[in-house]
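Table 4 source record.
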Amino acid sequence: MGLDIRLPLGLIFLVIGGIMTVYGFVTRGSAIYERSLDVNLNLIWGLLMFLFGLTMYLVGRRQKWQDDPVNPRPWEREGGAPRH
């Protein structure tokens, strides 16, 4: 089947993580981080979300690259798996 949830999930995390990372980078040293003991959570979690999204997207793309219609896996051939 052609549906792989890793691709759209990876893209969503890539976009949201990228937005949060840029926002955290632009607002570093700001007064909004006083409540979190001057820890820039937007930057940290944005980077983590971005890396997670990148991983999910690349794993999903790798799986799609391995699905080769010219040379299918033995169990995907016309006759099915060989019986011994």
